[in-house]
Amino acid sequence: MRRCARVRDIAQPNYNKILMGRCGNEDFEQMSSWYIFGAMGFYPVNPVSGEYVIGSPFFDKITIGLPPTPEQKDKHRKRTLTISAAGAPTKPYIKSLTV
Q1: What is the rounded CA–CA span in Å between residue 3 and residue 55?
Q2: Residue 44: CB partners within 8 Å, gap ≥ 6?
Q3: CA distances (Å), 85 to each of 70, 71, 82, 91, in order?
Q4: In whole angstroms, what is the distance from residue 75 CA to residue 68 CA?
Q5: Is 49 left (phi over 0), alpha (psi -120 to 50) or beta?
Q6: Cα 66 off chain centre by
């Protein structure tokens, strides 16, 4: 799980709101995508496989709006993914995960 702390070590000084907050080339939005996934606490191993690596979220709570599934009858009903991690900003390691 040292990778969780390492992700923070890279993300916090390099992705922030100061002028030089993003290091290097944006590389077709891959750099920003890496940060967003890292901050949410999971990221894809391979975009095609559907396999994800679990990390440690940077925030206490994150809510993401999801599109309707093809099987969903009411296409206007909002779906969300909520990630709750009390104390996450100061705790780089996860204790448990419930899906």
Answers
A1: 8
A2: 37, 50, 51, 52, 53
A3: 30, 30, 10, 9
A4: 6
A5: alpha
A6: 14
Closest CA to 57 of 44, 43, 41, 42: 41
Using a cut of 0.90, tell me whether the model's pTM lies above it: no
DSSP designation for 84: E
Q: What is the per-residue pLDDT across 35-71, written as a single tens digit (0 to 9) for each? A: 888 889 988 888 788 888 888 899 999 999 998 888 8
Q: Do 56 and 7 contact (CB within 8 A), yes or no?
A: yes
CA 27 to chain centre: 18
DSSP state of 69: P
Which tokens go with 11? Answer: 């993300």
